[in-house]
Structure formats: structure tokens, C-alpha cells
Design brief:
Layout (H helix, E strand, L loop, with lengths): L1 H29 L8 H17 L3 H53 L5 E2 L3 E3 L4 E5 L9 E13 L15 E5 L5 E5 L3 E12 L8 E2 L3 E6 L5 E6 L4 E2 L13 E2 L6 E11 L7 E5 L10 E4 L4
Parallel strand pairs: 2-15
Antiparallel strand pairs: 1-10, 3-4, 4-7, 5-6, 7-13, 8-12, 9-10, 9-14, 11-13, 14-15
Length: 298
């Protein structure tokens, strides 16, 4: 009887030890590996899960993921390229708008207090000479330049005029009949080519003369009111620089010397050639004494 009781007690104790061991094992298995809930801890947890998931993927799935990443990178590159191109276009447009504004300011300075100038009776033709005054303190009527118009012709293209369009400005800052600034490009209008002879009588700026001292003007056939068409030619054979450079419109002409030059202006289609004239831009003569070369007819 005692032996039987002892056996029962031993079995009960063993059962208790086994139960305690399972409980301890379950508790250990369910305990989290880390109690860190910081960003680093969360990243480690997700990384483990990702690695576990990646290990179960097939090679084809890996290749698909890589292809997707390459495609996304390509789209990002194309997007970046498009943005860069857009930025360049905006920058170019901004520069052009800035140049138009600068030209408009120059025209306002040229006009000064004169709100309206009418065509004088001093109309010249090819072969005549026109004076460009360069006032001095002791001689307000000092002759700076003498300009002779040898020939003026209108063409449809640079090639018709025998000019290389690669040596020309692609577009110039002009003005419409209302006086508003606008761009005029090659092929968008007519090409006026003038053969000139310019002589420096007594102009002090012999090393930095500027062709914008000569301009193309429009005179309304009814009111005879004069307005600027262009004072920035597309071509200047006598330029001391190269096309596209900031100083392209500059030329050199020492005192006492003369120079033959070919100058071409882009003219909008809205202007009739018979109403266009070549004249001095910064003309200090009285309006009635100003000279104008008629560019068509006798």
C-alpha cells in the first residue's frame, strides 16, 4: 500500500515538472525579440520580414521587380529631362522678353518729349547724302557722320539677296504700326538690304560707332506721322564682332575715313515698302529739317 502511494506521488511530481516546462517554453517563444519601438527598431523588424518574403520569391519575380525599378528610373530621367528643357525654354523666353522691354525703353528715350514727328520735305533718294549731327559744346551743328545710300532693295529670303542666313540674326526687335514692340524673324516678312557709304567727319566715338544710329521708319500716308520700324538690323557687314555677340552692332571708323557696308533689316509684312524710309535715329535737328531716304521709287 505504501509502495503504491509512493509511486502515485512520483507520477504526480513528474507531471507537474512537465507542465511547468511547457509553460516556460511557450512563454519564452512568445516573448518579443526586442522592445525597441524607435524608428531603428521598426526598420529592423520590417527588414527581417522583407528578407523573409524575398527568400520565398522566385528568380522571375526578382527580375520583374528589377525591371519595374529600371522603368521607374527611366520615367524619372525622362521627367527630369523634360523639366530641364522646359526651364531652358522659359529662360530663353524670359531673355527675349527682357530684350524687348529694353528696346521699348530705348525708343522712349529716342522720342524724348516729342509725342509725334511728321515727315519733313527733306526727302532723299539713292545717291544722295544725309548728315548725322554729333553736337559739341562749342559747335551744336557739328557733323558727325555723312551717310550715302547707294542702293536699297527688298527681298523675300536671304538667299535671294546673296546673304548667308547663318551670318544673320534669326530675329530682331521691331515695332508694329501702333508702336508696340514685337519680334520679327527670318521668313516672317520682307528683307530690306541697303548698300551704304558712311564717312566719319568728326565723330568722337570712332572706335565704338553703333549702327542703331540709323533706323528704318514708317510714315503714315495720310497723316505723315513717323514711327520706328527697326533700329536693329539682322545683318551688318562692317561689324567689328560676330553675329549673336552683344557688340555685333558696333563698327569702327576713324575720323576722316569712309567705309562701304551692307546692312539688312527684317521688315514685317504689315508695312508697305513705299511708306518706309531710312533716317537717323538720334536726330537732333529740328523736325522740319530732318532728312529721310525714300526706299522705293525715284
Amino acid at each position: 500500500m505504501k509502495k503504491h502511494f509512493l509511486t502515485v506521488c512520483i507520477l504526480m511530481i513528474c507531471t507537474m515538472f512537465v507542465a511547468c516546462g511547457k509553460a516556460g517554453y511557450r512563454s519564452s517563444a512568445e516573448e518579443p525579440q526586442s522592445t525597441d519601438v524607435s524608428a531603428g527598431g521598426m526598420e529592423d523588424s520590417y527588414s527581417d520580414a522583407d528578407r523573409s518574403g524575398d527568400a520565398s520569391q522566385s528568380p522571375e519575380a526578382d527580375h520583374s521587380a528589377e525591371s519595374g525599378a529600371d522603368s521607374e528610373a527611366g520615367r524619372s530621367s525622362e521627367s527630369a529631362g523634360a523639366e530641364t528643357s522646359k526651364d531652358k525654354d522659359l529662360s530663353s523666353k524670359s531673355m527675349k522678353d527682357s530684350r524687348l522691354q529694353d528696346t521699348e525703353k530705348e525708343v522712349e528715350e529716342i522720342s524724348g518729349e516729342e509725342e509725334s514727328v511728321t515727315l519733313s520735305d527733306k526727302i532723299l533718294k539713292a545717291g544722295d547724302t544725309m548728315t548725322d549731327l554729333f553736337p559739341l559744346d562749342d559747335d551744336p551743328q557739328n557733323q558727325g557722320l555723312v551717310i550715302t545710300l547707294k542702293e536699297a532693295k527688298f527681298y523675300e529670303t536671304p538667299e535671294d539677296a546673296g546673304l548667308d542666313r547663318l551670318q544673320m540674326e534669326e530675329q530682331t526687335e521691331n515695332f508694329d504700326i501702333s508702336g508696340n514692340p514685337e519680334w520679327c524673324g527670318i521668313g516672317e516678312g520682307k528683307l530690306l538690304v541697303c548698300d551704304l557709304n558712311v564717312k566719319n567727319i568728326n565723330h568722337d566715338r570712332e572706335d565704338e560707332l553703333h549702327i542703331s544710329e540709323i533706323m528704318i521708319a514708317y510714315a503714315d500716308p495720310d497723316t505723315r506721322k513717323v514711327g520706328i520700324v527697326s533700329c536693329a538690323p539682322a545683318y551688318l557687314s562692317a561689324s567689328s564682332s560676330k553675329v549673336g555677340a552683344p557688340d555685333y552692332y558696333h563698327y569702327q571708323l576713324p575720323k576722316g575715313e569712309s567705309k562701304e557696308m551692307k546692312v539688312a533689316w527684317l521688315i514685317q509684312e504689315s508695312y508697305e515698302p513705299e511708306n518706309l524710309y531710312l533716317c537717323v535715329t538720334y536726330d537732333v535737328k529740328e523736325p522740319g529739317e530732318r532728312q529721310y531716304f525714300k526706299l522705293t521709287g525715284e
